[in-house]
Amino acid sequence: MPLVEFVDFSFKYLGSDNLALRKIDLRIDEGEYIVITGPSGCGKTTLCRAINGLVPQFHRGYIAGHVYVDGHDTRESRVAELARVAGLMFQNPANQLVTLNVAKEIAFGPENLGVEPDKIRARVEELIETLHLEHLREKHPHEMSGGQQQMVAMAATLALEPKILVADEPTSNLDPKSAESLLAILSDLNRDGMTLVLVEHRLDLVSRNATRLVLMDKGSIVADGPPRKVLSLPICEEIGIGIPKATQVYKHLKRNGCVLSRVPLTGEELAISVEEACNK
Amino acid sequence: MSFLEVFQYTRQESVIHNLDPRAKLVISICLAGISLMFTDIIPMVLMICFLIPLIAAAKSLKRWATSMRGLLPLLLFIIVFNTLLSTTEYPFSHSIGLSLRLVALMTSFSLFFLTVHPDELSQALIQMGIRFEFAFAMSMAMRYVPTLGQEAYAIMDAQRARGVELDKGNMLKRIRNIVPIIVPLIIVSIRRALSIAESMESRGFGASEKRTYMETLSFRKRDWGVVFISLLGLVILIHFRFFFSLPEWVSWGLPF
Ligand SMILES: Nc1ncnc2c1ncn2[C@@H]1O[C@H](COP(=O)(O)OP(=O)(O)OP(=O)(O)O)[C@@H](O)[C@H]1O
Ligand SMILES: [Mg+2]
Q1: B residues 226-255 closer than 8 Å to A (CB)
Q2: I need a labelling partner for B255 at 20 to 30 A (CA). Which of A5, A137, A244, B36 fits?
Q3: What is the pLDDT of residues B61-112, one digit of tens each?
Q4: Is residue A246 part of a domain?
Q5: What is the CATH number of the domain that holds A98?
Q6: Is residue B10 domain-shared with residue B101, that is, in the same domain?
Q7: What is the pTM assigned to this prediction?
């Protein structure tokens, strides 16, 4: 059974004229690392919301089709129940921190779900240690940087022990350095077995670790497959997503009749492929 | 407004900080009650002399002193006006008593607010039977006040950049100038509230009837002791105040 399955799912927000999602068919299996990208307003956030039931439970509107999360139909399950399966990280870290210190913040989710206090304390300590949050322990969220806030938000989401972590542009408010370290932690989590869905524009940073790249445009999925394959499609230029520099060079060479043996994602990979081609 | 500092929690490791907030609530109310029973100078001075060591035990004497210095203009105001307008026999003496009473009252309550973290306060309320949602709303207000303040400044800057003259004109004009600040602030806040609600929902807020708490407050022996002593003190003083004629020196005052 797939962890998440969209079956011919469409959704339109109440009071909106166009469909935010159109006939989505998407299957997410355990252990995958899926990067979702696409132009602004194409429905990425709505897709994330549909995975943990915020669409259609919190955001109401017109629905067709179904989304199954770990076997539960999201139309019939409460967001709180789905929270045990799918954890969601949002774009704005400040709005995800609702308490006055880090330990409380991490404990908030498990407390809501009625986990025993001893277990909550253990989880809190573990997350503080693994995500290196010790120095933030007594800080008011207001006194933290965006990157620190987002790390705490991540800990708070992971405290629910979800099977799948959905992160909606978690790096968009962060400086490049914090963004990079956040993405590195996400890919570590995936290596340890966490299923990951990540909305991200900086494909040069994530394509190497992702198992799948999903391209969206105007509410539909327009491409879905291994990152190297999807990035080499002409549709990327048509909808205007920022593909890695190395991949651009590859495509340019290809148009001029020089086909490299593999689609490079980084300058280093490009250099190796070019060297190979020259030696031949 | 520096005199309000005395109502702001400061993190310290002290005997008072370690008491249960409910016990501290009882002490504060008893102390405030006692301060309200008297108006004369001598009992108020005695009261303040009793309170200062408590504040010192909470390691907050410096903060208290700063606040009281901030309170000075208000106290002078009270003394001047009350002396001029009072109909009592010795208006000046009476005014001094009143302002000392204000100091005693503030100090009594500050013992609570200085030493109780907002989270502890909401936990105490929950354990006193207040619904979690209400108690949590209160601590969330604390959480988002600085954010709201920051947003207000950002909006003010944006409006100034667009040529709105916020600090010019007469009183009426200035009041009207608040509109271009308040309206965007409300819109931004509603948007933020929705986004916060969404994130709380996805972390299971309101999921379970039997919500658990990582830390619960426990009333220990020393908390019971403190409550007992406070109530005993209150009862004894009520007794003396209302059922005995107090000795002459208690109601000593300045002869003008
Ligand atoms: N709460 C809402 N109410 C009504 N319409 C909405 C709401 N949220 C999003 N929409 C609309 O749904 C469509 C898809 O929006 P969505 O936020 O999912 O896009 P996105 O890909 O996440 O965009 P971005 O890159 O800007 O975050 C847009 O046309 C948007 O205007
Ligand atoms: Mg979005």
Answers
A1: none
A2: B36
A3: 999 999 999 999 989 998 999 888 888 888 888 899 999 999 999 999 999 9
A4: no
A5: 3.40.50.300
A6: yes
A7: 0.85
